[in-house]
Each structure stands twice: as structure tokens, then as C-alpha cells.
């Protein structure tokens, strides 16, 4: 206390110690830390921007991956398939969309046609959702009577995880088998697809993605499932290395 009764270093108006006596302002330190964190995040984001993992394919290159003859199955046409409405099929949603009908000769007639849809993007960003049967079949007037997990065994070491659906529109009942591939993984649920994409992005790349769908018209569920499973096995076996990788990844 000085002779004047005023403590050196005190605020004359309040008697509260000045900034010099109480040290640096905590708010300023907090702002500095926030600024450094933001700057670090920006730097890391620039360093780890996900890159394309596969080159873009032309329509012709994609088409050549899948022969018109798949084992005993022969190509028929491209018509008669259930697809999303035209306004949802713009090129912003996919890079390639391959649609075909196949059948195979058996004693006493033919099996099929099996209808195949392959929707592909070399940069998978979740935009193939529109091609899921749960979306496009109801949009075409079908009711989904069944939607269950299924598997197609390719060999002793690998099965394709699929969904099997029964769709009905009065005079037409269709059995549908489909799967998705995101990079080297084969998630079925939309949530798992998003999770695989997020994992890939954290590793620094953007995966490609495929939705493969095959279907057949009929009235016998087990027969429909067997026909579709046989077709998928023949397709994977006949497509060649590049086609097989496109369908099921490096398995």
C-alpha cells in the first residue's frame, strides 16, 4: 500500500488487477488454439483428399466385360426390364448401365429369360441407390412381397451376399436377386455401403461401385431362386478375370 492508498498495478476504477498482473487472457489462448486446430484440419484435408481408385471406363469397354454368351446362357435382347423412371437415369447417377436378357436351352424348352441389370460408377458416392429393387420396383407399380438375405456360392471359399425379393404386380410376379460391390467389399445394406465408402475415403481413395441385379418371371419361388443362382454362377465363371473383378471384386 502506497502513501496514497492505491495498490500499484491495480485498476483505478475497480481495484481489479490489470492484465499484466493476472497473465494472458484465457479467451485469447482459446482463440489461438481454435485457429491452430482449424489450420491443421485444412492442411490435413488437403493432404488426404481422396483420389479416384480406378480409371473411368467407356461404355464399350464395360460392355465387353460381359460376353453375349455366358456359359449355357445366350443373349436375347435388352427390352422388358424394370428400371427407374427416365428422369432418374441421367448420367449424373451412373456411368454405365448394362441391361440384357439371357436364356438357356434345356430338354423340352428354354429357361428364362433372365433379366440382368448392371449399374456402375468408377467413383462411388452412393448414387446407385436408385437402382435398388426396393426403390425402382414399387415405382413401377410392384408390391414387394418378400425381401430376405440370400447367398450364391461361387466356390468353397467364397459366397456372394445377396438380397432375394419377390415382387408382384397382379399378372406379373418377378423373383429378384441382387448384390452390391463397393471397392473390394460387398455390402448389402445401404448403411454398410456408406460405411465402406467412408473407410475408403479415410484411406485416401474413392472406391468404384457396382449394383448387379438379375430377375426372372415365374410363379415358383424355389425354382426362381435356383435359376437366378445358376445364372450368377455361370456369369461369374464366364466373364473372365476383368469381368469377375467387376462383379465380385478381388475374390
Any overview of this molecule?
Helices cover 31% and strands 31% of the residues. It has 251 residues and is α+β, with helices and mostly antiparallel strands. It has two domains: 1-47, no CATH class; 53-248, no CATH class. β4 (96-106) and β5 form a beta hairpin. α6 crosses α7.
Keywords:
eight-stranded antiparallel β-sheet, alpha+beta, 7 helices, elongated, two-stranded parallel sheet, 251 residues, 2 domains
Explain the layout of strands and helices.
Blueprint: H1 19-22, H2 26-47, E1 51-52, H3 59-64, E2 69-70, E3 73-77, E4 96-106, E5 109-121, H4 133-139, E6 143-155, E7 158-168, E8 173-182, H5 190-202, E9 205-206, E10 209-217, H6 221-238, H7 240-248
Parallel strand pairs: 1-9
Antiparallel strand pairs: 2-3, 3-4, 4-5, 5-10, 6-7, 7-8, 8-10
Helix pairs in contact: 6-7
Low-confidence stretches: 9-14, 41-48
Strands side by side in the biggest sheet: 2-3-4-5-10-8-7-6
In percent, how much strand structure appears in the residues? 25-35%
Alpha-beta content class: alpha+beta
Tell me the total number of β-strands: 10
The biggest beta sheet reads: 8 strands, antiparallel
Please estimate the helix content: 25-40%
What is the straight-line distance between the termini? 84 Å
Shape: elongated
Q: Rg to the nearest angstrom?
A: 30 Å
In sequence order, what are the helices and strands, one letter per element?
Answer: HHEHEEEEHEEEHEEHH
Amino acid at each position: 500500500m502506497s502513501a496514497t492508498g492505491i495498490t500499484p498495478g491495480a485498476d483505478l476504477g475497480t481495484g481489479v488487477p490489470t492484465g499484466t498482473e493476472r497473465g494472458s487472457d484465457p479467451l485469447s489462448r482459446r482463440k489461438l488454439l481454435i485457429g491452430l486446430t482449424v489450420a491443421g484440419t485444412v492442411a490435413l484435408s488437403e493432404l488426404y483428399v481422396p483420389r479416384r481408385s480406378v480409371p473411368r471406363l467407356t461404355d464399350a469397354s464395360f460392355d465387353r466385360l460381359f460376353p453375349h454368351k455366358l456359359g449355357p446362357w445366350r443373349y436375347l435382347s435388352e427390352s422388358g426390364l424394370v428400371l427407374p423412371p427416365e428422369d432418374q437415369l441421367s448420367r449424373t447417377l451412373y456411368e454405365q448401365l448394362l441391361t440384357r436378357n439371357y436364356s438357356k436351352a434345356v430338354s423340352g424348352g428354354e429357361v428364362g429369360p433372365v433379366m440382368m441389370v448392371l449399374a456402375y460408377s468408377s467413383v462411388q458416392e452412393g448414387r446407385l441407390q436408385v437402382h435398388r429393387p426396393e426403390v425402382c420396383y414399387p415405382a413401377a407399380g410392384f408390391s414387394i412381397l418378400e425381401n430376405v438375405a440370400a447367398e450364391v456360392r461361387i466356390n468353397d471359399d467364397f459366397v456372394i451376399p445377396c438380397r432375394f425379393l419377390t415382387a408382384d404386380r397382379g399378372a406379373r410376379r418377378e423373383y429378384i436377386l441382387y448384390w452390391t460391390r463397393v471397392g473390394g467389399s460387398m455390402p448389402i445394406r445401404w448403411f454398410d455401403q456408406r460405411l465402406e465408402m467412408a473407410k475408403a475415403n479415410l484411406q485416401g481413395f474413392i472406391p468404384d461401385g457396382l449394383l448387379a441385379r438379375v430377375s426372372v418371371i415365374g410363379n415358383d419361388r424355389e425354382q426362381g431362386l435356383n435359376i437366378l443362382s445358376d445364372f450368377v454362377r455361370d456369369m461369374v465363371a464366364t466373364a473372365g478375370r476383368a469381368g469377375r473383378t467387376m462383379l465380385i471384386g478381388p475374390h
